[in-house]
Specification:
Elements (H helix, E strand, L loop, with lengths): L5 H5 L3 H10 L7 E4 L9 E5 L7 E3 L4 E2 L5 E3 L3 H12 L2 E6 L8 E10 L2 E3 L12 H23 E4 L5 E3 L6 H8 L2
Antiparallel strand pairs: 1-2, 1-5, 2-3, 3-4, 6-7, 7-8, 9-10
Helix pairs in contact: 2-4, 3-4
Amino acid sequence: MKYISVEKFLKQSKEIQKAFIDWWQPEFGDLFLENYFDMDSIINVVGCVPINKKHFEDYDGNIHYKTDLVISLLTEGQLRQFIEDKTKCKIELDISSDIGYKGYNLYLRKNWGNDDYEYPYKPFENLSNNLLEAYWQVACQIAEKETNNQKQSIISTNKQGLPIIKGGGKTMREMYNEGYK
């Protein structure tokens, strides 16, 4: 099974790493690494996830908790799912026809029903000729855009230390209360 290496994961900023860690919900068969700073760590496989999903077990029955020290070794399917979940679009792929370059082009398509659709994102063109790497490139760009959007929407904090977001200089609580007066 092919997956993104720990080294590639750790090359990303902490914010991008957090976007992947927060998104990942352990499922049977997922690959993960715990204590990635320990050179003797071995790749584990999720063997059981209880209904409450508060922890998960590997095949040896050892219990693990989802923390910042547990990294999911993301596969092609998981990266595709990340991209589709975050963009609410479906992926279209083709091979670049540029002379001298053979790599993937990825397009995100939003269906509106029947034959109606649109492409709300710019195309991701001339990606790697390895599908796993192409998905990783796009997923990292989407995670980076998401973290940048979150940072830009917080403009300051109020006297209680709560964030004030764009949209009138009010906290979410103030906007909620005002809407239901």
